[in-house]
Amino acid sequence: MNVLHPESILVPADGTQTPCLLGSRCDNCASVVFPQMPVCPACLANGAMQMVEIGRTARLFSHTIARFAPKGFKAPFFQIFVDLPEGPRIFSLVGAECPIEPGVLEDGMDMRLVLEPLADTPESKDLLTYKYVPAASPEKSGKARHA
After folding, report:
1. Residue 27, SS3 per DSSP
2. pLDDT tens string 52-71
3. What is the pLDDT of residues 93-141, one digit of tens each?
4. H-type helices in the chain, by residue range?
5. Domain for residue 147, yes or no?
6. For residue 119, what pLDDT is reported?
7. What are phi and psi of 129, to 5 degrees?
8. Do 36 and 7 form a contact (C-beta atoms < 8 A)?
9. How far apart are CA 145 and CA 147, in angstroms?
10. Is residue 113 part of a domain?
11. Is 146 contained in some domain?
12. How many of the other CB atoms lie within 10 Å of CB of 7?
């Protein structure tokens, strides 16, 4: 498998670390951005951005269920914005372990980073990307669904 944006995702080879996103932190004003940038968008310092590992965890800011999909994706699927503890708010898809049903996600809930295929289609199944899933399984969070 290939990583969709290898410059933006750290995939540990030895299994001692968890995957993370690669962002930039400004040495001048401490702003953190994702993806990496050579110029700080906050203070406009050029050459002050240093690579930093971010995004292992997040807090769900907003979410929606997409009912129509572009080529290479299957609907429905979740689209989300998450706030990273390091500062940036980023867009993401939700990992496959999370059922696509109303009420499964709640704004403000803790999320964790996973790496998985971009989509379950022939065009995208061999491309790994980052996605987020709830940090606690439904059973752990007390939101188990009863049939």
Report:
1. coil
2. 999 999 999 999 999 999 88
3. 999 999 999 999 999 999 999 999 988 778 777 899 999 999 986 544 4
4. 138-141
5. no
6. 84
7. -145, 175
8. yes
9. 7
10. yes
11. no
12. 10
Structure tokens at 65: 């269920």
Q: Give the residue among 49, 42, 6 at the shortest CA–CA distance from 25.
A: 49
Q: Is the peptide bond before 134 cis (omega within 30 degrees of 0)?
A: no
Q: What's the rounded Cα separation, in Å, for the pair 74 and 53?
A: 31
Q: Provide the CATH number for the domain around residue 31.
A: 2.40.50.840
Place of tokens 């769900």: 60
Helix/strand/coil for 124: coil
Q: Does 144 reside within a domain?
A: no
In eight-state DSSP terms, residue 140 is H
Q: Quick check: 66 and 101 in contact, CB under 8 A?
A: no
* pTM of the shown model: 0.88
